């Protein structure tokens, strides 16, 4: 029987993918006590990056929001791999967002809401988190967005 969070994902029409393997010399997550830190996830779907380029320079705002949402789905896949059970997440503590954009782009927070809004949709009040969102000149694989996360475990 699916847990509460898996059931919520099903209600939202979300199927978690197989977690992406690291593409360099790092681990996808680390657990220390009740703290789970998940490495940055890009908008991968079925093994390919679906949102590439820069926001405000060829990538539409709504595509950036969708990319951030997909990054959070990929974070959840890593969380499940780390814990075996998403119901073990007591709280989303922090999300960090990296938005590939030119210097004149200023809507980073709107893009990152794609991940933040989904965190709250999935976890309710426990999904409310601290956040940092920054613009960067480029990301791995020309991804438009990357999102990392910290979670408190029960």
From TrEMBL:
It comes from the Bacteria. Residues 6-143 form the Endoribonuclease L-PSP/chorismate mutase-like domain. PANTHER family: ENDORIBONUCLEASE L-PSP_CHORISMATE MUTASE-LIKE DOMAIN-CONTAINING PROTEIN, ENDORIBONUCLEASE-RELATED. This is Enamine deaminase RidA, house cleaning of reactive enamine intermediates, YjgF/YER057c/UK114 family. It comes from Belnapia rosea. The lineage of its organism: Bacteria, Pseudomonadati, Pseudomonadota, Alphaproteobacteria, Acetobacterales.
């Amino acid at each position: 029987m699916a847990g509460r969070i898996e059931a919520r994902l099903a209600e939202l029409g979300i199927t978690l993918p197989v977690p992406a393997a690291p593409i360099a010399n790092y681990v996808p997550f680390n657990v220390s006590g009740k703290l789970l830190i998940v490495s940055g996830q890009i908008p991968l779907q079925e093994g390919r990056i679906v949102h590439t380029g820069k926001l405000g320079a060829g990538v539409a705002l709504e595509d950036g929001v969708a990319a951030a949402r997909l990054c959070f789905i990929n974070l959840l896949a890593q969380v499940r791999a780390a814990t075996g059970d998403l119901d073990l997440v007591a709280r989303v503590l922090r999300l960090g967002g990296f938005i590939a954009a030119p210097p004149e782009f200023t809507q980073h927070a709107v893009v990152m809401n794609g991940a933040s809004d989904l965190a709250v949709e999935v976890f309710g009040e426990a999904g409310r988190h601290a956040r940092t969102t920054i613009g960067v000149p480029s990301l791995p694989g020309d991804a438009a967005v990357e999102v990392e996360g910290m979670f408190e475990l029960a």
